[in-house]
Design a protein that fits this description.
The chain is mostly helical. The protein contains three helices and no strands. α1 runs antiparallel to α2. It starts with a helix and ends with a helix.
Length: 67
């Protein structure tokens, strides 16, 4: 489960960064319709990062279980 969460974290980070960069690039090149779609996908990537980070914290072994 932790491997899946780590993969989701990386996908979410890439999705957020690529969408932001592409959105601003398209906006400054006067392709506003496409820029809107890129900017709308940024919150989805951020939510994927947040959910993955929470699941990593929840499913990782705690210090007390190691003893």
């Amino acid at each position: 489960m932790i491997k899946l969460s780590q993969t989701g974290l990386l996908i979410g980070l890439l999705m957020t960064l690529v969408s932001l960069i592409a959105g601003f690039y398209l906006m400054f090149n006067e392709m506003d319709q496409w820029a809107k779609y890129c900017f709308m996908s940024v919150p989805v990537g951020f939510m994927l990062v947040f959910v993955s980070l929470v699941s990593i914290v929840m499913f990782s072994p705690s210090q007390s279980e190691d003893n």
